[in-house]
Amino acid sequence: MRVLLVDDEQELVVTLAERLSLRGIDADWAATAEEALEKVKDHTYDVAVLDVKIPRMSGLDLKRHIEKIQPGIRFIFMTGHGSERDFEIGAAEAGEEYYLVKPVKLELLIAKMNELMKTEGGQ
């Protein structure tokens, strides 16, 4: 499984990528939406884990841009400051079960990624 992590909290996203890599998941990361879009143009990912609140572009908008480049990629949203409205919008985009509130336990994130891989088109 190849995963792209996008979060403007660079220390968090780097640590998360390292921890996933230690568990055999090929994890790449980006700290901005622009970096994420460049990576998606150059690499193929199975799952993108997006922070909802990214500067200059929301995670929801980033999802739409990524889908244009890589149709079929699956998404998980993470947020640290989710309002009820944010939850409703994020849950509508990715499904309630794939909208996670930080801090997210690594085992839960891996379980959600594995669930997504079993969905239609997964490996």
Automatic annotation (TrEMBL):
The keyword Phosphoprotein is assigned to this record: yes
Organism listed in the record: Desulfoglaeba alkanexedens ALDC
Annotated GO CC locations: cytosol; protein-DNA complex
Lineage of producing organism: Bacteria, Pseudomonadati, Thermodesulfobacteriota, Syntrophobacteria, Syntrophobacterales
Source taxon at top rank: Bacteria
Modified residues (4-aspartylphosphate): D51
SMART domains (alphabetical): REC (SM00448)
Gene3D superfamilies attached to this UniProt entry: 3.40.50.2300
This protein's name: Response regulator
All copies of domain Response regulatory, residue ranges: 2-117
